[in-house]
Design goal:
The protein has 568 residues and is an alpha+beta fold. It is built from eight helices and 36 strands. The strands form nine sheets. Strands 25-26-27-28-29-32-33-34 form an eight-stranded parallel barrel, surrounded by four helices.
């Protein structure tokens, strides 16, 4: 179960760490030979590395962006630092926001954890392994791509390695509130169903309160495995007394959970997201999706976004007039969803089950479930998150995929059935027009389709021939776009020019608008992003479908989309 940290005071381990690249994996093999402390610590061995004197790197950070010569490196980089224990808590946890791709965590020579999956948070208890002073933390960070990974070997984005989100020490009482989930249902009344997980020997009495509504309720135990006790309760209020969260009025409330020894707060909002026919409803009202997709990337920093980067992204989103963002193709920093809560932006969040992952491999299936769980348990209190997306462009003719994906949909609904489940799917060209034949569609609430008519073949208005199905689910064009190099000008027919891209957007957006079942789009993409499979003279290592380039310079299509959203 995810370790709630939002409302806790934590001690940061961000800052300068030592990085020791290990391209031949020599240190890994010899390091712990017949000893229970790393060789690094042995004063009698002539080591080929120095734990206190590697290459200094900033955490959070991406290694390749910081170490000259390592820009496209994929492999092992040991990260080390020392720390003193400063808290007075009873229990202590080490918490990582994300490490791409696999993290091997050692503390004072003791192996504590291996975590696979590059974009989700994880934590490990270190109470028994930690000393008061001079603790040696060693994290093996391995971003080599794997056939049995999620994502797999091929992606259209760069595989930045590193500890690229914050690392914290989290002190808790012996018995503490590990996580909280607030689920809302809205009819004449608004009901917040609150679940808390208490970690520790004596759960005791637990209460929930929503001070903004002047309401509270006891939580009653309903499940326990000894170490973790789950408790539930409900707070109900008249609909007139609650300001519901909505993109036009993103009202947030604090939900406080208090046990005998601990207290946490969750800042959330009350709202319902549903589907009716081909519409997406927020609090019963149908909404149009005025969206944009983005990767988590900033020039020179890889995926380690600063607060300033996050501000900048939300400024662009506001300037475009968006009410919706697709955070592609993996979980972005939790700060994005928290900010979206405040700004009233609906989110599509996803895991990197992208293209050809090995659906038949049971290890991959377990990893898939784990990544969904880690994302959902982190963000299930974010009212901005409207859709969980389980996959992007996976093969509908693959029988195994067709068995596994519905299982993942069920897994998502089991974790959280207050949001909509989607996936970016392939559609089919038939004599009647474009239709959805993918068997996954019947399991989804909302269907995403990625279409590049006018870029990868066809004409920019190709989606006009989508066959409206009045009984079908809502469809979002989850990708549409064309490449343009910022500053490259020419005729509307000249590929890679800003003019070509602007004309493409005009036609594509009009075509999307003409299909009733399509509730909106999240065009591909807000800004250019690094991709090793894009090497022509206009690309040079970047996917150029951005409305801005990687330095934030606007291309002409930016104003086409803005006019479409703000001045329809
Ligand atoms: C897609 C993928 C996306 C790519 C994009 C492109 O369909 O989902 O990851 O970056 O096309 O630019 O071709």
């Amino acid at each position: 179960m995810y370790l709630h940290t939002e409302s806790r005071e934590t001690t940061t381990l961000d800052g300068t760490w030592q990085a020791i690249p290990d391209p031949y994996r020599s240190f890994q093999d010899g390091w712990f030979d017949d000893r229970d402390v790393p060789l690094l610590e042995d004063p009698h061995e002539p080591a080929d590395y120095d734990v206190d004197d590697g290459f200094p790197v900033e955490v959070p950070g991406c290694v390749g962006e910081q170490l000259p010569g390592f820009e496209y490196y994929e492999g092992m980089v040991w990260h080390t630092r020392r720390f003193d224990r400063e808290d007075n808590g009873n229990r202590l946890f080490l918490r990582f926001g994300a490490v791409n791709y696999e993290a091997d965590v050692w503390l004072n020579g003791e192996h504590l954890l291996t975590h696979e999956g590059g974009y989700t948070p994880f934590s490990v208890e270190i109470t028994d392994a930690v000393s008061r002073e001079d603790n040696l933390l060693v994290v093996g960070v391995d971003n080599e791509r794997r056939e049995d990974g999620i994502p797999g070997m091929q992606t259209d984005w760069f595989n930045f390695g590193g500890i690229f989100r914050s690392v914290d020490l989290v002190a808790t009482p012996e018995t503490f509130v590990r996580n909280v989930k607030v689920e809302t249902s809205v009819d004449e009344t608004v009901t917040a169903s609150i679940t808390a997980w208490i970690d520790g020997p004596e759960p005791g009495d637990v209460h929930a309160a929503i001070p903004g509504l002047g309401a509270e309720a006891p939580l009653e135990p309903d499940d326990s495995d000894g170490a973790l006790t789950r408790l539930t309760g409900e707070i109900t209020a008249d609909r007139d007394d609650v300001e519901l969260w909505h993109p036009d009025g993103p009202r947030l409330y604090d939900v406080c959970v208090e046990s005998e020894s601990d207290a946490v707060e969750v800042r959330t909002g009350f709202r319902a997201v549903d589907v009716e026919g081909s519409d997406i409803l927020v609090n019963g009202e149908s909404i149009d999706v005025r969206g944009i997709s983005m990767h988590e990337e900033a020039a020179g920093r890889g995926r380690a976004l600063t607060p300033g980067d996050i501000d900048q992204r939300f400024e662009w989103v506001a300037e475009l007039g968006c009410n919706f963002v697709r955070l592609a193709h993996y979980p972005h920093t939790a700060a994005m969803a928290r900010r979206a809560d405040e700004e009233g932006i609906l989110l599509w969040e996803e895991v990197p089950a992208y293209w050809d992952i090995d659906f038949a491999d049971e290890g991959v299936q377990a990893l898939y479930r784990q990544q969904l769980r880690e994302l959902i348990q982190r963000d299930w209190n974010r009212p901005s998150v409207a859709l969980w997306s389980i996959a992007n462009e996976t093969d509908p003719e693959d029988e195994v995929r067709n068995r596994v994906l519905p299982e993942m949909v069920a897994h998502v609904r089991e974790l959280d059935d207050t949001r909509l489940v989607t996936a970016a799917c392939w559609f089919d060209e038939t004599d009647d027009g474009l239709v959805l034949l993918d068997p996954l569609v019947e399991h989804l609430d909302v269907v995403g389709i990625n279409e590049y008519y006018g870029w990868y073949g066809g004409e920019a208005d190709g989606v006009r021939s989508f066959v409206d199905d009045p009984t079908g689910p809502p469809v979002i064009v989850s990708e549409t776009g064309a490449g343009a190099k910022w500053g490259n000008h020419g005729d509307e027919d000249d590929r890679w020019t800003e003019e070509f891209q602007a004309a493409y957007y005009r036609e594509s957006l009009e075509a999307i608008e003409s299909v009733e079942q399509i509730v909106g789009t999240t065009p591909w993409i807000l800004f250019d992003f690094k991709s090793p499979r894009r090497m022509n003279p206009h690309q040079r290592g970047y996917n150029r479908k951005g409305l801005l380039d990687e330095h934030g310079r606007k291309k002409r299509a930016f104003s086409v989309l803005r006019d479409h959203y703000c001045d329809p």
